[in-house]
Amino acid sequence: MAHTLRVVFAGTPEFAAAALAAIHTAGFPVPLVLTQPDRPAGRGMKLQASAVKRYAQEHGLAVAQPPSLRRAGKYPAEAAAAIDQLRATPHDVMVVAAYGLLLPQEVLDIPPHGCVNIHGSLLPRWRGAAPIQRALEAGDAETGITLMLMDAGLDTGAMLGVGRVPIETSDTSATLFDKLAAEGARLIVDALLEFEKSGTLQATPQPEAGVTYADKIGKHEAALDWRRPAAVLARQVRAFDPFPGGVATLGDGTALKIWAAEPATDAKGTAEPGAIVEVSGDGVVVACGEGALRLTQLQKPSGKRLPVREFLAGATLSVGQRFGLPEPQ
C-alpha cells in the first residue's frame, strides 16, 4: 500500500537498516537517506558502505553521506551542502536510528513534524552511545526501544512509544541488537501509520527519575579484571560481543580473546584471582574475586573464535597458570 507521509531517514548500521527496510516495505516514500561516509574495514581495509547505504542503493533511494552536519565543525562546506539538500527535499518527518552524527538544532528544525529517534533502551535509562551493551553489562532484566521526538539534549526528548524486550541469560549484544532492531522496525512503522491517520505525533515527557548514561564502549574495557565477581565478568563478556570482546592476558603477554563464559558454580577450592583452576573440554575455569568463571569460547591472536574443546587442541593452558590483572581504570 502506498502512503503519502514522506520520510527522510538517517542511520548507519544493521540496526538502522532494519528500520529503513520496514519503512520502505510498508510503502512510505523515502525521498532521501542520510548515512555515514564509507569506512575502511576488513583485512584489506577497503572502503565499505554502511548497511543503510547498501539497502538504499539496492532499492534506488537517494543517498547523502556528509561527514558532518555542523556548520561550525571540521567540514563546514559539506555540512552546509547537506543542510541545503535536506531543505530542498520535500518531506514530512525525519526518522533517525544509530546515525552516529550529531544533529544540531538547525537540522532538527527542518522536518515540518520533527525528527523521531529509534533509541535502543527504555528511556530515561541508558541515554547515550551504547545503551544495548550497557544494559547487558549492568545485568538489567529487560531493555527495549523508545521512540523519541528529538531535541538538542542527549536523548532527552518526549517519548512516542515504547517496546519492551527481556534480556535472556544467553543474550550477547549481537543477539540483543537483532531483537531490538526488529522491535524498532515494528514500532516505527506503527507510529508512522498512526501519525498519517491522526496528523499528530502524541508524545509524553520522559520521567525525571531513573536517568543513567551509556558511555561509548572503549577498547581498553575489554581487559577482564579477575578481582571482580564471576557473574559480573560473564555479563561483560556477553556485553562486549561483538566489540571489543573480553581479553585475558597470560604471563608471557599472549592476549586471548574470550567470547563466551559463565559462572562456574561447581568450582572447588580457592585460588588467587586470575589463576586457572581447571582445564577440560567443558571449559577453562579461572578464579575470580568472587566465585570462578568458566571460559567456553576463546580465540588466539590471529586465530578464530573456537569452542573450548577445539581451542585446547591447538593451545596449551594448564592448571596453575595465571592471567594478569589489568591496571585499575
The named CATH superfamily of the largest domain: Formyl transferase, N-terminal domain
Read across the widest sheet, the strand sequence of neighbours is 5-2-1-6-7-9-10
Shape: elongated
Q: How many structural domains are formed by the residues? A: 2
Terminal Cα span: 54 Å
- As residue ranges, the low-confidence spans are none
Percent of residues in helical segments?
25-40%
Percent range for β-strand residues: 15-25%
Question: What are the secondary-structure elements, in order, as H or E?
Answer: EHEEEHEHEHEEHEEHEHEEEEEEH
**SS elements, strand count:** 17
CATH class identity of the largest domain? Alpha Beta
CATH topology heading of the largest domain: Rossmann fold
Number of helices: 8
Main beta sheet: 7 strands, mixed
Account of the protein in words:
By secondary structure, the protein is of the alpha/beta class. The protein has 2 domains: 7-214, Rossmann fold, CATH 3.40.50; 220-313, Methionyl-tRNA Fmet Formyltransferase, Chain A, domain 2. It has 8 helices and 17 strands. It has helices at residues 14-25, 51-58, 76-88, 105-108, 131-138, 173-198, 230-239, 308-313, and strands spanning 7-11, 33-34, 39-41, 46-48, 63-64, 93-97, 115-119, 127-128, 142-149, 159-166, 213-214, 246-249, 255-263, 276-280, 283-287, 292-299, 306-307. β12 and β13 (255-263) form a beta hairpin. The model has no long low-confidence stretch (mean pLDDT 95).
